[in-house]
Hints:
Blueprint: E1 12-21, E2 24-34, E3 39-43, H1 50-57, E4 65-70, E5 73-75, H2 80-85, E6 88-91, H3 103-107, E7 114-115, E8 118-119, H4 121-134, H5 152-165, E9 170-174, H6 182-197, E10 201-205, H7 209-215, E11 218-223, E12 226-232, H8 238-247, E13 249-250, E14 253-254
Parallel strand pairs: 3-10, 3-11, 6-9, 9-10
Antiparallel strand pairs: 1-2, 1-4, 4-5, 7-8, 11-12, 13-14
Helix pairs in contact: 4-5, 5-6
Amino acid sequence: MTPGDTAAPPLLELRGINKSFGPVHVLRDVDFTVRAGEVTALVGDNGAGKSTLVKCIGGIYSTDNGETHIDGQKVNIHGPRDAAHNGIEIVYQDLALCDNLDIVQNMFLGREKRSGLILDEPAMEELAAKTLAGLSVRTVKSVRQLVSSLSGGQRQTVAIAKAVLWNSRLVILDEPTAALGVAQTAQVLELVRRLADNGLAVVLISHNMNDVFAVSDRIAALYLGRMAAQVRATDVTHAQVVELITAGRSGSLGLQPEEAL
């Protein structure tokens, strides 16, 4: 496991992010740092603010205040196009794949390559195959397989490859192993680790602590809309992370009692 270069500025840094929906204050002064070459696990109970934070990063929600920095430079992300322009891709839990299309068609959906007025199928097929090969994906027999014929693990692999295809630098994965069996989970976690080892920044949202500790370099725990702690995975135990998730603190680590209210 090769951690990111801590001498370089973080690929993504959020400072003091707040987000409310009417009277409900969902995110409170959240700081969050993600480095290239690392897997950062984002954990928290249901309602902790994980999905809202990710949607703020992806430009789906605007923040009420706070700053977003990419490579140390302040940026304004006003929508998903801005996020994509900054190399941010999100793979949501529903994967957003079309069963009636093949792998190539799914990977280029809405971003098709053309040669004049017609689709450049050979170029898209070559790029899709090259992307899967670059991720050492060996479980897919043909890039012309219909997605409907793929297993859950293969679908997750295609969704991740689709995100990587667009020169992404930060890939956010929302519960990528939630519906998978043991063997398929191992394949997807291996792919997650490979993304970071290839130099990408990866944010892994997961409730599965075994998955978190298997591949993560750092763990960021949200508690009731606040960032309880962001620590190296090697510096905490499974039990400490569970306490951060459920109570916002574990011993001297995490929120002070007055902050956790």
